[in-house]
Design goal:
Helix content is about 60%, strand content about 10%. With about 350 residues, the protein is mainly alpha-helical.
């Protein structure tokens, strides 16, 4: 509690563990070192009593009072308790949205030397809640690393399976024999798109399911919000596949591959520039990353998915715990933008292929 009063940033971070709504009512100010108990009493506003059996003089630090308030996010608070191995403690639904006001009075600490940290009561396996919480953060990091590798493989697969589908078949003469049949060109493009979309869905289902099954079998850990993060990864793969299909309708296979992987590389580098800019508070670098994500939003989708599947504890501090450090968190509006981007690319593919001279 003393540390809460001393550090307003820590107070804010702890408040954000349970809510996005946090307001500092009274700043605690900087701690003041008092020369003796009388000076400490005058600064703190109450009489300071010290152990009578200590002959050595303590270091007295006075911390002013502080106050803050926040509104409880019940789901987030419950998720943190679950991560700490305290899932048997169920918070009531009525707690959601409840206003909490915290007032930390002035305090005085007397340091007589090194003191051991208090140990929380261990569970049946000898682990404290802090042990469980720390272990789950490590499991979450490793799981996100595995999902990041799956995402990269899916992106490569999305580009490779569709790069040659129109351009290659036109070059080999296969497409000419196909379009002579009573079938519209738009149906050819949509049929290929649906086939590839189904293939990517099956691939992601097997790969993500395999990683999650292995992690759960070895550690009994399951990352949060898979149902929200996995569809975003799928949307990213559909986006890259659709852009590749659109390029294949207008360019050769080699040119299509160069364009798609060039755009993906631009988005990848721009994403890192944005995160570095956010850490260094360099708005120019952040803007560069945002522009690159508008050119191709694949990296923004990955970072949003990674953030969604990050543990609530890491989210409360404004970043994810995976291999991609997300400090500048992509907006949910980027998902809408990516979906519109996908539809535009698909419409371009249909129009370009319908008008192309075979």
């Amino acid at each position: 509690m003393e540390e809460l009063g001393r550090n307003s940033t820590l107070s804010e971070q702890i408040g954000k563990l349970f809510s996005d709504s946090f307001t500092v009512i009274q700043e605690p100010g900087d701690p003041v070192v008092a020369a003796n108990a009388e000076d400490a009493s005058a600064l703190a506003g109450f009489t300071v009593r010290l152990p009578a059996n200590r002959a050595d003089a303590p270091t007295l630090t006075v911390q002013g009072s502080a106050a803050f308030e926040f509104t409880v996010d019940r789901d987030r608070a419950q998720a943190i308790l679950n991560d700490a191995g305290l899932g048997e403690t169920q918070l009531p639904a009525s707690l959601d949205g409840a206003p909490i006001a915290v007032s930390v009075p002035a305090s005085v600490s007397a340091a007589y030397g090194g003191c051991p940290d208090p140990n929380a009561a261990p569970d049946e396996e000898g682990d404290t809640p802090i042990d469980n919480l720390t272990r789950n953060q490590i499991y979450n990091f490793l799981t996100m690393a595995g999902l990041y590798a799956i995402n990269f493989l899916t992106i490569v697969m999305s580009a490779l399976i569709s790069a040659d589908t129109l351009a290659g078949e036109i070059g080999s003469g296969t497409m000419q024999s196909l379009v002579t049949k009573p079938i519209r060109r738009v149906d050819v493009v949509l049929g290929k798109w649906l086939g590839f979309a189904g293939l990517l869905a099956l691939y992601l289902l097997l790969m993500i399911g395999g990683v999650l099954t292995i992690v759960f079998a070895l550690s009994s850990y399951s990352p949060p919000n898979i149902a929200r993060g996995a569809p975003i990864v799928y949307l990213e793969s559909l986006l890259v596949m659709t852009i590749t299909l659109a390029c294949s309708s207008a360019f050769s296979t080699l040119a299509t591959g160069g364009i798609v992987f060039g755009l993906y590389g631009l988005a990848f580098i721009g994403g890192f520039v944005e995160q570095i800019g956010a850490v260094l508070k360099n708005q120019v670098a952040v803007n560069i990353g945002i522009i690159s994500s508008l050119i191709l939003p694949s990296e923004s989708l990955l970072r949003r998915a990674s953030y969604e599947m990050t543990s609530p504890l890491a989210q409360s501090f404004g970043f994810n715990a995976g291999p991609l450090i997300v400090v500048s968190i992509p907006s949910p509006a980027m998902i809408v933008y990516a979906a519109l981007y996908l539809l535009t690319a698909l419409a371009f593919a249909i129009r370009q292929f319908s008008r192309r001279d075979l």
